[in-house]
Amino acid sequence: MIAGLVSTAVLAFTALLDGQVTMDALVENALQIEIGGSVTTGHFSADGSYSDSAGESGSWSWDSGQLCLFLGDDVTRCSALPDNKALGDRWSIETPDGAPVTRTIVAG
Questions:
Q1: What does the DSSP assignment read for 48-102?
Q2: What pairs with residue 40 in β-bridges?
Q3: What is the mean pLDDT of residues 60-88?
């Protein structure tokens, strides 16, 4: 019984930390997003504000490995944020319609 409770607590704590290292790297740097031949660079400030090179701005939140952007006109974009990413790291995801998206943490 105690072993089960400890195991559950460890899993819950680990879930809370998912993406934290990556989020710290994004606040210290910037996120370059490549999709369909377009490149946009997003900046995440420690105060929770967000802006990018495409002219979008708003706020961001991170919770249990999920990064959400809150942009004007009730636009919210959320996606999973992998853990342990740092400056120079690159990873790929797909949009809901299957288009490839490449994300890279860049200086900035």
A1: SEEEETTS-EEEEEEETTEEEEEETTTEEEEEE--SS--TT-EEEEE-TT--EEE
A2: 33
A3: 90
